[in-house]
Amino acid sequence: MNAPTNAIVFDHVSKHYGDVLAVDDLSLAIEPGSTVALLGPNGAGKSTSINLLLGLLAPTKGTIEVHGHSPAEAVKAGEMGAMLQNGALIPELTVKELIDLVRRLYPRPLALDELLKLADLTDLAGRRANKLSGGQTQRVRFALAIAGAPRILLLDEPTAAMDVESRLRFWASMHDYAAGGRTVLFATHYLEEADEHSDRVIVVARGRLAADGTAAQIKADAGGHAVSFALGDQPAAGLDLLPGVTVVEILDGTATLHTSDVDATLAGLYRSTTLDVHRLKVSGADLEAAFLQLTRES
Ligand SMILES: Nc1ncnc2c1ncn2[C@@H]1O[C@H](COP(=O)(O)OP(=O)(O)OP(=O)(O)O)[C@@H](O)[C@H]1O
């Protein structure tokens, strides 16, 4: 039998919680060595997908493979490490003791010094776990996730509640770990994180696949541009009906029209409205506009 070419495969996977359809016929394949963002709004099914991948939940329909094995087999073989949204540390232990305790549970763990270095914890090695800030705690949880040197690392909204500096340090650690050819899948609803830290973005909305590609492809496919202008106190009624317009945002007297056809929108703005248009600006799509459009459409 040929070795499986994909690290992760979801084949028509659905997951119901009673009446709630959290994951809806999701099919995708992730190549080894890629860093993939699972991007979606609240309730899109990101955590459910990660829990399915870890074998913590069973799909209602469909199958999941991890390097050709079931999730349970892959977890048992130490193929996957995960940083989930919750999970307390043992407060009495120091950072070093805790990481060493966990790494010893694995057959081929990373060296303690390497783990401390990768998670940027060398200076905090002697600190007790209950004396850490939120961002430092997340770094310890990251170290625990990679302790067994997993080939696949799953991160569920890893930077939630981190400040800007902590985020930067966290992503640097993630890239260092991924650089060894490992596969990383991280869930986020931060568009910038998906854009900056992944080489592929899988957008999910209401449990379904809404888009899949590089951040640049998703922006291009959504075809979006934004037309903005100073609206002042003029009425915004009807802007959403202009040709091409997908989303209208009004903020501090500025109207921003996200559009799939910038020429048609501009023509409509000048011909079909009586608005005084000042400080007109046309910009290329950003991931946010693409994301809004995609998660509305699906
Ligand atoms: N244990 C559960 N029982 C019932 N419904 C659940 C359960 N867990 C999740 N859900 C529902 O399943 C859907 C998907 O939830 P999930 O937590 O996977 O989304 P998410 O994309 O991770 O959201 P968030 O970004 O808010 O963490 C939501 O409608 C949620 O309310």
UniProtKB/TrEMBL annotation:
Main location: membrane
Locations listed in the record: Cell membrane
Bilayer topology term: Peripheral membrane protein
InterPro entries: AAA+_ATPase, ABC_transporter-like_ATP-bd, ABC_transporter_ATP-binding, P-loop_NTPase
Pfam families: ABC_tran (PF00005)
Annotated SUPFAM superfamilies: P-loop containing nucleoside triphosphate hydrolases (SSF52540)
Gene Ontology terms, MF aspect: ATP binding
Keyword Translocase carried by entry: no
Record keywords, A-Z: Antibiotic resistance, ATP-binding, Nucleotide-binding, Transport
Cytoplasm in keyword set: no
Domain named ABC transporter: residues: 8-231
Protein name in the entry: ABC transporter ATP-binding protein
Record organism: Nonomuraea insulae
